[in-house]
Amino acid sequence: MDMPGGQSSATPPNAIPPIAVTMGDPGGCGPQITLEAWRRRNQWKAPPFYVIANHDVMVAADHAGTPMQRIEAPFEAVDCFDAALPILDIDCPLIVPGDRDASGATSTIRAIEMAVAHVRDNQASALVTNPINKALLYEAGFSHPGHTEFLAQLAQSNWLLDDEPMPVMLLTGGGLRVALATIHTPLKDVPDSLTAERIIEIASRLHDSLIMDFGITSPRIAVAGLNPHAGEEGALGHEEQTIINPVCAQLRTKGYQISDAMPGDTVFASMLEGDWDAVIAMYHDQGLAPLKTLDMWGGVNATIGLPFIRTSPDHGTAYEAAAKRSARPDSLIAAIRQASDMVRSRANHGCPS
Hints:
Layout (H helix, E strand, L loop, with lengths): L18 E4 L7 H10 L1 H4 L4 E5 L1 H7 L6 E3 L5 H5 L4 E5 L15 H16 L5 E4 L4 H5 L8 H12 L9 E6 L2 E5 L9 H4 L2 H17 L7 E5 L14 H15 L3 E6 L4 H6 L5 E4 L2 H11 L5 E5 L5 E4 L5 H6 L5 H19 L5
Parallel strand pairs: 1-2, 1-5, 2-4, 3-4, 5-12, 7-10, 8-9, 8-10
Antiparallel strand pairs: 6-7, 6-11, 11-12
Helix pairs in contact: 5-7, 9-10
């Protein structure tokens, strides 16, 4: 029976919660790639997932007669997943694929808030977010630089934390794992943002995630320098000598396998050669440029440092592809798969997801 959803109830005892997927921008590629990820479910042995989205928006994005099933609670997704894409229906204006329409912004935000609540209540095992358009969300009162920062605020309010957690963006793809020391920070502000406390926090969260989420027993972490040639002993900048290297030395006394600052133009090649398990990049494009060059379609953005698992495709809303019904689901599939792998890894370590 196809029924309107939206109400939540507890997951039955001993059931494995499905993965929550948000629709993202309703006019963007999110609805389409979610449909395609489900259609290919047998090819990549998909774990059960459901999408928090407007049913009519999903139908408008469909071009293959995909069966869809409204659900009232997340746990229902497990039973119907093989036969239909489970949709937890939310209110949203009908937006044509490819349209940049701010009228769907409130629904985009609501889907994210609902998904976080589902993970908090153990109705979902992890959260996978489809791409959003921040410029449109700002018109609805969204006040965060991006998804990552919004999720940190939701973590604080939903888990009643004293302080807002500092999220760490960890990108994977093309054989690389790259954590960002700064996220959506203007380049001119990056040097002032690289405090010793921040780098220590990034390194410790990355170290713990590599163990807990990726099953790496003794992680090896490389650190990219901020300046060309990692400062060349102060000739091209001093941040390596005054901040980055002293912090890395301090971490090594605590047992971390972590390098001093390495030149940004060689550190990623060193990881590809097997010398490191992850790289800490100092700023957004330093980390994302090599990763997207190696794997433009299959990159995954994971947020570590939150009390729940969150992954996302490593691309934007792709309006043109949405309009043409040509958006590729590779990155969303990789994000759902990685979220599922992280859930299993944490279970193996006796940690809640």
